[in-house]
Amino acid sequence: xxxxxxxxxxxxxxxxxxxxxxxxxxxxxxxxxxxxxxxxxxxxxxxxxxxxxxxxxxxxxxxxxxxxxxxxxxxxxxxxxxxxxxxxxxxxxxxxxxxxxxxxxxxxxxxxxxxxxxxxxxxxxxxxxxxxxxxxxxxxxxxxxxxxxxxxxxxxxxxxxxxxxxxxxxxxxxxx
Length: 176
Fold this sequence. Notes:
- The protein is mainly beta.
- It folds into 2 domains: about 5-65, no CATH class; about 95-175, CATH 2.40.50.100.
- Helix content is about 10%, strand content about 35%.
- The protein contains 2 helices and 12 strands; from the N terminus they run αββββαββββββββ.
- It has a 4-stranded antiparallel sheet, with helices on one face. Strands 5-12-10-7 form a 4-stranded antiparallel sheet, with no helix packed on it. A 4-stranded antiparallel sheet has the order 9-8-6-11, with no helix packed on it.
- Strand 2 and strand 3 (about 45-50) form a beta hairpin.
- The longest helix has 13 residues, at about 5-15.
């Protein structure tokens, strides 16, 4: 996670008035806690990062900053996701389909490179353990394998779009 991403995350934590935020990705751990001062209601944010376990005091974020256009999304921000429209997986037509979800936060890619064909497309039959896409996280390209078998009926994410943990990527018909 680079400095700019951490700054955007701090802005988002302050905007959402969260008191605590924790994130873990492999060996990288991030813990943010906010404290309200008794006087003036100003916030102080403390950033704790691992593996070095450094504590970095951070000045309060001024309210004149606009929120980031695409704020980073992490599993601990589930309450903020409530403002988003329901996913297609929540529609009645999707109830008979199995979901293939992202196991990590990152950027979704349908193929291994722009000049290669997509791993799967609508109408393809997948087996458990078959690679269906790639999610790039922290400069690492992670092959995502299907945990189910079935026929792909819908791709819910556009190529090169950010995805969050446990986000539905594909719908598959187990009877297909």
